[in-house]
Amino acid sequence: MIxxxxxxxxxxxHLELEASAVFSYLATxxxxxxxxxxxxxxxxxxxSDEEHVHFMKFFDYINEVGGHAIVPAVxxxxxxxxxxxxxxxxxxxxxxxxxxxxxxxxxxxxxxxxHATIDFLRFFVDEQREEEVQFNRIIxxxxxIGKGAQSLYYIDKEFEKISTQKPAGGAQNAEKA
Length: 177
Ligand code: MG
Prior knowledge:
CATH superfamily: Ferritin, core subunit, four-helix bundle
Bound molecules: magnesium ion
CATH class: Mainly Alpha
Shape: elongated
Largest sheet: none
Distance between the termini: 20 Å
CATH architecture: Up-down Bundle
CATH topology: Ferritin
C-alpha cells in the first residue's frame, strides 16, 4: 500500500504536535510537583503517557502504509504557570490545535480519496472530543471551586480522582483502536 504524498506530509507534520504534547504535559507535571500538587502532577503525567501512545500510533501508521515517519524536532514547552487554571487553559489550547490539525489531515485524505487514513483518524476525532470536553469541564470546576489554599487542596484531590478513573493509555474507546 502506498500512501498519497500529501497525506504522508500532513501526517508527518502532525507528529510534531503529538510529540510536543508529550513534553508539554510532562513540563506541566513538573510544575505541579514543584508546587506540591501531587494529584495534578499524576494527572498530567498520565496525559503525557497518553500523548506518547498517540505519537506512536501515527508513527506506526505512516510506516505501515508505505510512508516514512520523520521524528520531529520539538520546541521547549511552557514550563511555568501562574496557577492550576492556567495549566488547564494552556492544555485546552494545545488540544484545540491538535484537533484542528487532525481535521486538516482528514481534509487532505478526502481530497486524495485515501479512505484508509480517514478510517485511521476516526479514533482521534473521538479522542480529541473527549480531551476538549474533559478540559472544559475541569476549567469550569476550578472556576467554581475558586481560589485559596483550601480550594487548591480540593482541586488537587479532584485531579487525583480523575487520573485514577481515566483508563491508562488514552481514550475511553481505546479498546476499539
Ligand atoms: Mg494527542
